[in-house]
Amino acid sequence: MKYKVKVTVIDKKLYPELQQQYCADPVSGACQCYNVGDEFIFFRDDERDDFWQMGLNTLVKTEADPDTVAGGPKMPHCSEAWDAISRYIYAGLQGGSIMKGGMKEENTMIACCSDGTRPVIFKIERIDYE
Predict the structure, then answer these.
(1) Where are the chain's structural domains?
(2) Which entry of 20, 33, 51, 119 is 20 to 30 Å from 70 by CA?
(3) How far apart are CA 2 and CA 128, in angstroms?
(4) Rounded CA gap, 91 and 100, in Å?
(5) Per residue in 33-49, pLDDT tens?
(6) Distance separating alpha carbons of residues 8 and 36, to the nearest angstrom
(7) Cβ–Cβ under 8 Å, residues 34 and 9
(8) Are the beta carbons of 80 and 118 closer than 8 angstroms?
(9) E strand or H helix at 96, and its extent?
(10) 3 state SS of 29
(11) Which are the contacts of 64, defined by CB distance < 8 A and separation ≥ 6?
(12) Which of 121, 122, 123 is nearest to 12 (CA)?
């Protein structure tokens, strides 16, 4: 059995009142690195190892210019997002359970980056194939 991991941006949040109160740029707005609907596929096999490249060039679907999306051909995933999702990606690429008991399916996890004023929410899925 082989494993790949699909990551999908399912939502983005914005808390302008927190940005006003705490951010150096009080109107910085929503995350500019990702777009709702962006999809990424990670492989780790004899041909490629996307994990150790922080997901550079794993973007497979976007409605934006791919060169401006984290995980696209020109920039790896945002470090805040990568810190939040990489452990689940790694577990999935090894065939492990991503969230047994916590989610309806043990091969799926919902996680978000740690940017408290504009978090991005990701769906992470281990996909088994031969």
Answers:
(1) 2-129
(2) 20
(3) 6
(4) 12
(5) 999 999 999 999 888 89
(6) 8
(7) yes
(8) no
(9) none
(10) coil
(11) 35, 38
(12) 121
